[in-house]
Each structure stands twice: as structure tokens, then as C-alpha cells.
Amino acid sequence: xxxxxxxxxxxxxxxxxxxxxFGAVAAFLANLVVARLVGPTALGAVGLVGLxxxxxxxxxxxxxxxxxxxxxxxxxxxxxxxxxxAQNVALTYEGALVPVASLALMSAGLxxxxxxxxxxxxLAGATFLVQSFVRYQEQLQWAGHRFGLIARANLINRIFNxxxxxxxxxxxxxxxxxxxxxxxxxxxxxxxxxAAPASGFRPTRDDAKAKELLAAGLPLTMITVLYWGFRxxxxxxxxxxxxxxxxxxxxxxxxxxxxxxxxxxxxxxVLQVKLLxxxxxxxxxxxxxxxVERLAILTAAVTCAGANIAQAGxxxxxxxxxxxxxxxxxxxxxxxxxxxxxxxxxxxxTLLTSALLNxxxxxxxxxxxxxxxxxxxxxxxxxxxxxxxxxALSSVASQISVSILHYRLLHSSLFDRAALRExxxxxxWLAALPAACALTYALLLRAPRPEGWWLGAVLLRAGSxxxxxxxxxxxxxxxxxxxxxxxxxxxxALRGLLAGDxxxxxx
Length: 507
What we know:
The protein is mainly α. 82% of the residues lie in helices and 0% in strands.
């Protein structure tokens, strides 16, 4: 029986998603308070340090990424010894580079004169060190399908981080935002040390295996670098071409977009684990096509609906509580489309970079093309005075182009000898849902905005978006799930979770 059906993925990811929904609410409130306390310029400086930290995390040799893929593949094909050996070699060789990267980050603070940036880079080096340990532990738990354990670790992060952000900003300003991730990571490390089962790790020297993992991992690293490079290229271009205050507006808007993307990634992280294991078991993509098509349409529908609802409510809320951040509303409304556009490419990319298809080099070229599109469109629009909105539009345009190219590359494997009707039906819905999202946003721009009562504006605009998507989601259900019990089973699983049945780990 397939492990990648909608019901199984939702059941496995529901506890993690429930934790992150709670965390998103806490982070939303914390971000409003923090923004009020530190202001856009200091927030821009913190965002610049965050970009350094992100890029440092991307520049890894890729041994663990390659080993993770092999661990899932060998686990699905019944070879646990080979999976453990790959894990140990990867951790031994890649872990040795972590202190070096940490010291390099600390040294980069000498490039700046502003005290906040100098001290921030030193703290970024410490953050990189502790977060690397968290990342390694988390990846081992994903490989072991221990979703309940991951959810509990995430709960620590979701509780500690917003509390420490607010407390730190209140006590020591923007410096508190730089210290909070270190304390949160240390708390998460302590949790994994006490709660995680023995990983079986032993320092293992195997140069031949390390070279094999490096050969497979470097293209995967390149994909990751290019993915995050073009995903964060908008913030990088704002940091390079605009003042820190503008970067603060943009980082503020993106912080809320990232919350929505985190909820999508919970689903996709579970999907990746099960999908790669299933591919190792059955050895083919075509037999999974019905589940893959349903998953793609489901996530497109949900993320498009989420984008419109976010666009409906963000402006009135910011106008009421943080008027000095009103310049972030217009770019936020455009960036919200990335909830759908970014999510669309994750599923085909996961299949293409699996050990079965092994198309990571071509995927790297696709990511590079997306980065070039992003830069070119951004240069054109900003030179014509579009400002932060132009940066946001270039980001959305590049995400659309990458999603199209990923599905074009996957097409022959997913639809091998499939009927024309099946292909046409899938691509019609995959294009129609984002088009409906764009049309709904155009209607929101024309909708009246009641003055004086911000809650009325939110309810009116969000209610209009919900009404549109209630109809569209019902059409999706009839066309794609009329013969399936997946949604009713998922609802039953969620009710069981709320009643306490979801406390069990799936490990």
C-alpha cells in the first residue's frame, strides 16, 4: 500500500503542523511587538546579519544531504547497515567543517563599522555553531520517520523564540533579537540529547565513501544554494541597493510570508521522507502519478487560498497597529503569491533529485535560470521606479518560471504513456488555480476599505476571499477527491489529534 497518499501525509504531518500553527500565531504577535520596539532600521540590520547566517548555512559540502537521500533510499529497500554507514561518514567529515565556518562568520564582522553589525556577526558565528547541531539531529529524526519527536522539538522552538525575541528587544533592543536564536538552539539541543534515541553515530573514516557522498552532495548543495540564493535574492538586492530602513520594511513583510511557507514545508518534509522511501521500494515514478497529481492540486488550492486571505487582512492590521510599517504592505501583497508559486516547485523538485531520477544537475540549471530571471526583472522594474514592489514582482516571476521548468523536466517520468486527457486535466487545474488567485487579488484591490474600524475591513475583505475559495475548493473536491476518503480521513485524524490521540510519535 502506498505511503504517499494525501491521508497518510496529512496524518503524519498534522502534529508538526499543529505545533507550527501555534508557533505562527505566537510569532505573528511577537513580530508586531518587536517591530514596534526596534523600528525598521534596526530590523534591517538584523535582517542583514540573518542573510549572512543563511548563506553560511548553505555553503556546506553536501555530504549529509547525499547521505540523507541514501538513508531514506536504503531504508526503503531494506539495507539499514548501508544507511547507518552513510550517516556516520557524512557526520564525521561534514561536522569537522562547522567550527571553521563559525569562525569565518565571526571574522566577517570586521567588514562593518556599525556596532550592531559587528557584534551581530560575532553572535551569528555562535548561532551557526549551535544551529548546526540542531540541524544534524533534526535530519536524523526525519530519516528515522520520528515525526512526533520533531514536533516536540519544534514546540520548544515555537515557544522559546518569540518569548526571547520580545524579552530581548524590550531589554536590550535589536541585540536581543540576535541572542534569542542561540538560546533557543541550546534548549533544542538539550531536548534532543535527553529525548532522541541513540543515533548509532561513531566517527568513521572512509575516504572512498566520503568522495562518493561529496560527488553526489555537491550538486545537491548547488541546488540548495541556487534555490535559497534566488529565494532570498530579493532581500539581497534590497540590502545592496536600498537603505537599511527599506530592508527593514522588506524583512518585516517577508517574516510573515515565511510563516506561511513554514506550514507548507511541514507537509512537504513529511512527503519527502515517505516519497523517497517509496521510490526506493517500488523503483518508479509513474505508478505514483495519481497520488502526486492529487498532492500537487491540493497544495496549489490551499496555498492560493491562503495567499488571498493574507492579502485581505495584512493591510488593515498593519494600518491599525503599526502605521510606521505601512510601506511594507504593498510588497507583502505581491510576495504573498509566493505561498503558491514557491510551493508549486517543491514536489517535482523532490522527485527529480531523488536517488531514482538523479536529475540534480539539471535542477541546478533551472534554479540558476530562476535567479537570472529574478535579477533581470528586478533591475528593469526598480530602474523604472517600482521600488520594493518591483523587487517583490521579480521574485514572483522567477518562482513561476522555475515551477514551470520543473514540471516540464518531470513530465516524461510522471506521465509516461499516460492518456492525453490525464495530462490536460492536471495542467489545466495547475494553471487555473493561480490564475484564480490573481483574479481574486484584483477584486480585493477594488473592494471598499471601511475607515475607522480596522476589524470591519479585515472581516469584509477576508470574507470575500473566503467566499470565492469556498466555491473553488468545492470544485477541486468534486474533480479530484469525489472518489476518495482522504479528506474525511484527514479530518478524523485531526479530531483524534485534538482529543489527544495524536500525542503518540510515529517513530
